[in-house]
Amino acid sequence: MIEGHVSEARRFRTRAKLLLLGLAALTFVLPTALLSSPVYAQQTERGRELGKRVKCMCGGCNDSATGCNHTGGAFSGPCDTAKGMQSEINERVTRNESDDLTLQAFVQEYGPTVLIVPPAKGFNLAAWVTPVVMPLLAFVLVWVVVRRWRHKATLATASGPAIPAEFLARAQRETGKDYDE
C-alpha cells in the first residue's frame, strides 16, 4: 500500500516538472514570436531603405524607424512607434507610392524633424554649406593675419632729422671718447 503512494507521488512530481518546463518554454518563446510581427518581418528592401531615412518618433531614441532597438529591461527590440511607422511605410510601398510622396506624408504628420537627412533647401542649406565654407573662411582669415604680421615685422631703417655737428661734438667732449662717424 505504501509502495503505491510512492510511485504515484513520483508520477505527480514528474508531471509537475514537465508542466513547469512547458510554462518556462512558453514564457521565453511566446514574447519572441510576438515581437517578430509578420508585418515587421516582411519588409521589402525598398521599405527598409525608406525606414532608414525616417526617424523613430517615440522620443526614447534617435534611431531610424528601421534601426530602432530599445535595449534593457523587460523589453528589447523595436518600439511600437517604430513598428507602426515601418508598417505604414510597407503599406505605401505595397501601394507603389513614390519615395518622395511617402516621406512627404511623414513630414506632414510629424514635421520636418522626422527626416534623418534634412533637405538641402532654405535654412537647412546652411547645414550643408557651413561645414565646407567655414574652414575655407578660417583659412583665408589666418592667411590675411599672417601676411599683415609679416609685413609689420620688416625692419624699417632709422630715420629722423639729421643731428647737427655741434651736438655730436658736445657729446664727444662730455664722454671723452671719440666715435667713428
Describe the structure.
The chain is mostly helical and 181 residues long. The protein has three domains: 35 residues; 80 residues, Orthogonal Bundle (Helicase, Ruva Protein, domain 3); 28 residues. It has seven helices and no strands. Helix 3 packs across helix 4. The longest helix is centred in the first third of the chain and has 34 residues. The protein is elongated and about 135 Å long. The N and C termini lie far apart (141 Å). The relative contact order is 0.06.
Please summarize what this structure is.
The chain is mainly α and 181 residues long.
What is the CA–CA distance across the termini? 141 Å
The CATH topology of the largest domain? Helicase, Ruva Protein, domain 3
Strand coverage percent: under 5%
Q: Please give the radius of gyration in angstroms.
A: 41 Å
Question: Which properties best describe this structure?
Answer:
3 domains, Helicase, Ruva Protein, domain 3, 181 residues, single chain
Secondary structure elements and their pairing?
Blueprint lengths: L1 H34 L2 H4 L3 H8 L27 H15 L4 H12 L14 H29 L11 H11 L6
